[in-house]
UniProtKB/TrEMBL annotation:
Descriptive protein name: Uncharacterized protein
């Protein structure tokens, strides 16, 4: 090729590149995408381009929602290798790979194992960036796709799991922070056991598991019901293991994101009315979701606060540690198994099934066949059905200590746990007697709680008398921060913080109303107590109590941050106490009881 022809090709290519239109969804091998230009999917759902997150000046190639005013990035190509300026170019090289170059150096690239003559990059309306062979037409065969390499966001139609043929492991990893999309330490992935598990990790620490899939939902998350606005799919075949979800209404915009700030896996839905993302669900939902909290054969139960109990037929391995609240050593059998002496099973209901690492599955066996299979294997410790649909089918066996069990009222699954014949006989004789372990734990706790209540009540009365003598509390009907000596929150702020007082945010409920967890716009976590309409308080009484409690702050009690008085709403905002501590509950009880016992609110 002579120099004149070469110059003509170069100039033509440069002119073509400069005229590149960002109103297209494709990029050919003769084009490049510069910083400032974008690809837009066919119907305008997603956009590909360069961006800088938060306050960072680094540049990244990413995908975000096009038709949402709040830029929400769902995928980042070069999350480990940002560019420092705006000179980077995205192009397709001669081997058909997608390449991001900055100053001549390759910053990021794909690794397609198949070379093609007419490679084409296309951004789909699903948010998937795909590299295809244009000569194949619409075969649906991708040389490479971004859905195989997700970052922190799980989109509808995306697969999370493992391709058993190629070894491809599709997992989600959080951003380090809002300014840095490089991989954090919060990971969601599928563990490929005989009975696969959907799990989350904090670095190398096992953080949470959903429990195995039962045909409808995960055994540890029964809120995934068929009437949800999404359809869920879990595939376990010889070729792959993965989960996926799809909105039943295509107009619903939803995403799942790994948030390292609070270590939640959060599902958001876009609300057109408010033009904002609304938190729909999150995991873990409570302290009982903590992996292995109660140790082997321990069962986590949510009452006013999480508590571990040994399953029937078991006792704490270390009673002293157990009674002090350290449940990690778990429980041991009252009577050892005797495989040759007529072992049997006890049926436990509404449980999150144990960790399936040491398990075995047969999808075709009946429950009775499953029982026989377990009974004939001296190492088998429990069994359950695999699929709960149509009366139950399949067989799952466990061959080790049973870990990470929790009670799930109105949900969960049946689990049949192996017991020795002598223990079965003993349990039959004491089934109508009260549980001595529960009585032994509950009575001291109740005594201590009332003792603490009495001491605090004594000091409350003294403080009330002093406040009355000094006339620090007046009867004004005006509501202001100066009047209450406390910040006032507007109801809109509290409603958004609690996701419209969502049941998923509900921590518990006492005699004076429910308590919700909330997150303010600045990320601050709060506990919101919404007083019920039958609490018997008027505005004057409520304000007086708020002013009093603001003056009764104590280092051992949860801090009152503010309140909300709007219409008929009476709301109290506290600092959030992880695990819904006893201090918070005692504090609320003391406040209300002290008011009424002293006649202060009359």
């Amino acid at each position: 090729m002579d120099s004149l022809s070469f110059m003509f090709i170069v100039v033509t290519s440069l002119l073509f590149t400069s005229q590149f239109s960002s109103a297209t969804d494709t990029l050919t091998s003769t084009q490049s995408l510069a910083d400032g230009s974008t690809l837009i999917s066919k119907h305008g759902s997603f956009e590909l381009g360069f961006f800088s997150p938060g306050s960072s000046r680094n540049r990244y190639l990413g995908i975000w929602y096009k038709n949402i005013p709040v830029r929400t990035v769902v995928w980042v190509a070069n999350r480990r290798a940002p560019t420092k300026n705006s000179t980077a170019l995205l192009m397709i090289d001669i081997k058909g790979n997608l390449v991001l170059k900055d100053g001549g150096s390759v910053v990021w690239s794909t690794n397609s194992k198949r070379e093609v003559q007419t490679p084409l990059l296309q951004l789909l309306d699903s948010g998937n960036l795909v590299l295809i062979d244009a000569s194949d037409g619409h075969s649906g065969i991708y040389l490479w796709q971004s859905f195989d390499y997700p970052t922190d966001t799980f989109l509808p139609g995306m697969k999370l799991g493992v391709n058993l043929k190629t070894g491809l492991d599709r997992r989600l990893t959080s951003w380090k922070n809002w300014d840095d999309p490089s991989p954090g330490d919060f990971v969601w992935k599928i563990l490929v056991y005989n009975n696969p598990e959907s799990t989350m990790w904090k670095g190398s620490k096992f953080y949470f598991r959903t429990g195995p899939w039962n045909g409808i939902t995960y055994s540890g998350k029964p809120q995934l019901k068929p009437n949800q606005p999404f359809s869920f799919n879990f595939v376990h075949s010889d070729d792959e293991v993965y989960c996926a979800y799809y909105p039943k209404n295509k107009s619903v915009i939803s995403r799942i994101v790994m948030n390292q700030t609070n270590y939640w896996r959060e599902r958001y839905i876009w609300e057109e009315a408010s033009q904002s993302w609304s938190l729909y669900t999150y995991l873990p939902t409570d302290y009982c979701d903590t992996y292995g909290l109660c140790g082997a054969y321990g069962n986590c139960i949510i009452t006013d606060s999480p508590v571990c109990q040994c399953l029937k037929g078991f006792n704490p391995k270390s009673p002293d540690n157990w009674n002090s609240g350290d449940w990690s050593q778990g429980c041991v059998r009252n009577k050892s198994l005797n495989c040759q002496d007529g072992d049997g099973f006890i049926k436990f209901t509404e449980l999150k099934l144990p960790d399936t690492k040491y398990s075995w599955v047969n999808k075709n066996m009946s429950l009775e066949e499953c029982r026989g299979k377990c009974l004939n294997n001296c190492n088998c410790t429990a069994y359950s059905v695999v699929d709960i649909r149509n009366g139950g089918s399949g067989c799952a066996l466990w061959f080790n200590d049973l870990i990470d069990i929790r009670q799930i009222p109105s949900g969960g699954q049946d689990l049949y746990i192996r017991m020795s014949a002598s223990e079965l006989a003993r349990l039959e004789t004491v089934k109508d007697e009260p549980d001595e372990k529960i009585v032994a734990i509950v009575i001291p706790v109740v005594v201590l709680a009332f003792a603490f209540l009495g001491v605090c009540y004594y000091f409350c009365q003294r403080r009330i008398i002093k406040l009355k003598d000094k006339n620090e509390i007046d009867g004004s009907d005006e509501s202001s921060e100066e009047d209450l000596d406390l910040p006032l929150f507007d109801l809109v702020t509290i409603t958004r913080a609690t996701n419209k007082f969502s049941l998923n945010n509900k921590l518990g409920e006492g005699g004076f109303g429910p308590v919700y967890k909330g997150i303010l716009a600045d990320g601050h976590e709060i506990a919101v107590k919404r007083l019920s309409s039958n609490s018997g308080q008027g505005l004057k009484e409520f304000k007086n109590e708020v002013k009093l409690i603001a003056r009764l702050q104590h280092r051992n009690l949860v801090k009152l941050l503010g309140c909300c008085i709007q219409g008929e709403e009476r709301v109290l905002i506290y600092e959030y106490m992880p695990n819904r501590s006893l201090d918070f509950l005692i504090f609320v009880v003391i406040w209300h009881q002290s008011m009424r016992l002293t006649g202060y609110s009359q």
